[in-house]
Protein backbone atom coordinates (compact mmCIF):
# COMPACT_ATOMS: atom_id res chain seq x y z
CA UNK A 1 0.00 0.00 0.00
CA UNK A 2 2.86 2.38 0.79
CA UNK A 3 4.36 1.59 -2.57
CA UNK A 4 1.09 2.47 -4.31
CA UNK A 5 0.90 5.77 -2.41
CA UNK A 6 4.45 6.62 -3.44
CA UNK A 7 3.59 5.82 -7.06
CA UNK A 8 0.49 8.00 -6.83
CA UNK A 9 2.47 10.82 -5.21
CA UNK A 10 5.15 10.51 -7.88
CA UNK A 11 2.50 10.52 -10.58
CA UNK A 12 0.80 13.57 -9.05
CA UNK A 13 4.16 15.37 -8.90
CA UNK A 14 4.68 14.68 -12.62
CA UNK A 15 1.17 15.96 -13.39
CA UNK A 16 1.88 19.10 -11.34
CA UNK A 17 5.14 19.65 -13.24
CA UNK A 18 3.34 19.24 -16.53
CA UNK A 19 0.61 21.65 -15.42
CA UNK A 20 3.27 24.19 -14.38
CA UNK A 21 4.93 23.90 -17.78
CA UNK A 22 1.55 24.21 -19.49
CA UNK A 23 0.76 27.32 -17.44
CA UNK A 24 4.10 28.88 -18.42
CA UNK A 25 3.45 28.00 -22.05
CA UNK A 26 -0.03 29.55 -21.99
CA UNK A 27 1.46 32.69 -20.41
CA UNK A 28 4.07 32.84 -23.16
CA UNK A 29 1.42 32.43 -25.85
CA UNK A 30 -0.63 35.24 -24.30
CA UNK A 31 2.42 37.56 -24.26
CA UNK A 32 3.17 36.72 -27.90
CA UNK A 33 -0.45 37.45 -28.88
CA UNK A 34 -0.29 40.79 -27.04
CA UNK A 35 2.90 41.68 -28.91
CA UNK A 36 1.31 40.72 -32.22
CA UNK A 37 -1.72 42.87 -31.44
CA UNK A 38 0.54 45.82 -30.61
CA UNK A 39 2.50 45.34 -33.83
CA UNK A 40 -0.74 45.10 -35.80
CA UNK A 41 -1.98 48.36 -34.23
CA UNK A 42 1.28 50.10 -35.12
CA UNK A 43 1.08 48.83 -38.70
CA UNK A 44 -2.49 50.07 -38.98
CA UNK A 45 -1.41 53.48 -37.71
CA UNK A 46 1.48 53.62 -40.17
CA UNK A 47 -0.79 52.58 -43.01
CA UNK A 48 -3.27 55.37 -42.18
CA UNK A 49 -0.44 57.91 -42.02
CA UNK A 50 0.96 56.68 -45.33
CA UNK A 51 -2.47 56.97 -46.95
CA UNK A 52 -2.80 60.56 -45.70
CA UNK A 53 0.66 61.38 -47.05
CA UNK A 54 -0.25 59.85 -50.41
CA UNK A 55 -3.38 61.99 -50.58
CA UNK A 56 -1.35 65.10 -49.77
CA UNK A 57 1.24 64.26 -52.43
CA UNK A 58 -1.50 63.74 -55.00
CA UNK A 59 -3.13 67.08 -54.18
CA UNK A 60 0.26 68.83 -54.37
CA UNK A 61 0.93 67.11 -57.71
CA UNK A 62 -2.38 68.43 -59.07
CA UNK A 63 -1.58 71.95 -57.91
CA UNK A 64 1.93 71.83 -59.40
CA UNK A 65 0.48 70.67 -62.72
CA UNK A 66 -1.93 73.62 -62.70
CA UNK A 67 0.87 76.06 -61.88
CA UNK A 68 3.07 74.61 -64.64
CA UNK A 69 0.26 75.09 -67.13
CA UNK A 70 -0.34 78.69 -66.12
CA UNK A 71 3.38 79.46 -66.03
CA UNK A 72 3.75 78.16 -69.59
CA UNK A 73 0.99 80.51 -70.69
CA UNK A 74 2.61 83.35 -68.76
CA UNK A 75 5.98 82.49 -70.23
CA UNK A 76 4.56 82.59 -73.74
CA UNK A 77 3.00 85.99 -73.04
CA UNK A 78 6.26 87.37 -71.59
CA UNK A 79 8.22 86.10 -74.60
CA UNK A 80 5.71 87.74 -76.91
CA UNK A 81 6.15 91.07 -75.10
CA UNK A 82 9.95 90.72 -75.12
CA UNK A 83 9.89 90.03 -78.84
CA UNK A 84 7.66 93.05 -79.46
CA UNK A 85 9.93 95.33 -77.41
CA UNK A 86 13.05 93.99 -79.13
CA UNK A 87 11.45 94.47 -82.54
CA UNK A 88 10.48 98.01 -81.56
CA UNK A 89 13.99 98.83 -80.34
CA UNK A 90 15.63 97.43 -83.50
CA UNK A 91 13.11 99.32 -85.69
CA UNK A 92 13.75 102.52 -83.75
CA UNK A 93 17.54 102.07 -84.18
CA UNK A 94 17.14 101.70 -87.96
CA UNK A 95 14.84 104.70 -88.05
CA UNK A 96 17.45 106.92 -86.30
CA UNK A 97 20.35 105.50 -88.37
CA UNK A 98 18.69 106.36 -91.64
Summarize it.
The chain is mainly alpha-helical and 98 residues long.
Write the layout of secondary structure elements.
Blueprint: H1 2-97
End-to-end separation: 142 Å
**Main pleated sheet:** none
Helix segment tally:
1
Mean pLDDT: 87
Order of helices and strands: H
Low-pLDDT runs: none
Q: Please give the radius of gyration in angstroms.
A: 42 Å
Strand content: under 5%
Q: Structural class of the secondary structure composition?
A: mainly alpha
Instruction: State the shape.
Output: rod-shaped
Total strand segments = 0
- Percent range of helical residues: over 70%
Description of the structure:
- By secondary structure, this protein is mostly helical.
- It is built from one helix and no strands.
- The model has no long low-confidence stretch (mean pLDDT about 85).
Could you list some keywords that capture this structure?
rod-shaped; 98 residues; single chain; mainly alpha
